[in-house]
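Methods — Computational structure assignment.
A single polypeptide chain was analysed. Its primary sequence is given first, followed by the predicted tertiary structure written as structure tokens.
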Amino acid sequence: MNLEFENRLGPEWDYLEDRYRRLMETGFSMLSVPANCEIDVSLVGDDEIHEINREYRSVDRVTDVISFAFDDDKTETGKIINDLSIPHMLGEIFICVPQALRQAAEIGNSKERELSFLFVHGMLHLLGYDHMKEEDEKIMFPLQEKILEAALPERK
């Protein structure tokens, strides 16, 4: 498994690369995701996430996280390449750090908890999880917490 990390904001956020790698490894292990799978994650600011949201989702506002799953158009059986020697890119996650910090302050989370939650949320979208329907939400949301707790037990 591989995590490509791009920090477009500044060196004070570089520590998130190790945190995101630990979250990805924990989530992949819990969900039996093949070792050849990869994720790209980019830390961006308000202007960039606003532009991405407007261009690709036709939503003209800043948001906290956007995921682009590269397997959305594949059937369940063809979703992940079984040849472990061939890397398989699951998709990209864009996390808006300024928005995450505003949300954390608003709801009383630490910045680390909010930035970790957004990564796990985006990762699960790349793996095909969603929360548009109540029955899907009942699966995805507890799974997010389970991954966070297993990967970051010190956050309690």
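Note: The chain has a mean pLDDT of 90.
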